[in-house]
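Work Package 3 (structural annotation) set out to generate three-dimensional models for the target panel prioritized at the project kickoff. During this period the team completed the workflow that converts sequence records into discrete structure tokens, so that structures can be stored uniformly alongside our sequence database. As a representative example, we reproduce one entry of 308 residues exactly as it appears in the project archive.
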Amino acid sequence: MRPSVQEMIARSQSKKNKKMTEKLIPILLFLIASVSVLTSIGIVLTLIVETITFFTRVPFFEFIFGTTWLPFSNKDAQFGILPLIVGTLKVTFIAIVVAVPIGIAAAIYLSEYASENIRRVLKPILEVLAGVPTIVYGFFALTFVTPMLQLIFPAIKIFNAISPGIVVGIMIIPMIASLSEDALSSVPKSIREGALAMGSTKFEVAWKITVPAALSGIIASVVLAVSRAIGETMIVSLAAGSTPRLDGDFTGSIQTMTAYIVQVSKGDAGFGTTIYYSIYAVGFTLFVFTMVMNILASYVSKRFREEY
């Protein structure tokens, strides 16, 4: 039976609608994907514009090479960012010392030694740590870790670099462990089986075969975790103090770049003042730090990638 004229018109209209839909879907998806890109561009432009305003009031070299950070001084305000950078690096250094060995050891255990059942239980539990709000970590550092450290080392002040450094390290362990475990698990089993067949022990296979083969992924996970540690805010705001210092002391109060931004953002400075614009200059410095770390992670991942 031949279709009627109305049915032929309806089929033709349906084909036109499908073609129209096929044309609109890519445009819609492109616009959705562009939101994140446009947001990033907007953030960078905001940082640049406000930072330029700051540098019309404070010389660039005084900001970069100055050794004193006293923005709230009424007589002689100084904006040398080095004490804030040193405070940030102190916390990051301790976090690396804590997180890298534990994170990589956990990844090796999960990848090389744990049974499938144990891995199914342990890995999600480990990753739960990544979902704990950072303010909870901050109170944990201030009310538990610091008093414990003071029992062992009485010279440590209530606000110090060690306690937040340890807790930031604990916070980034799941990132290192999970990403490193993924990298180790991607090494083909045939390589492990070949090494075992040659008489190697399980530890020798893990240390001399699997870890070197997955080195690019492990290093990339560490670099990303360090980037996360540099940008951490709440833990250092609660437990590190607010004393910008350019020295090597880890036991006293310090101030990091993110902690200073929080301090000013709470209302310690009026809109349009030099202190207000200084948070954008500090934020831009922090942005440069994290961007360099991310570029480094991407380079390491590509440079040392092993393809099987």
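Strands lie at 69-70, 78-79.
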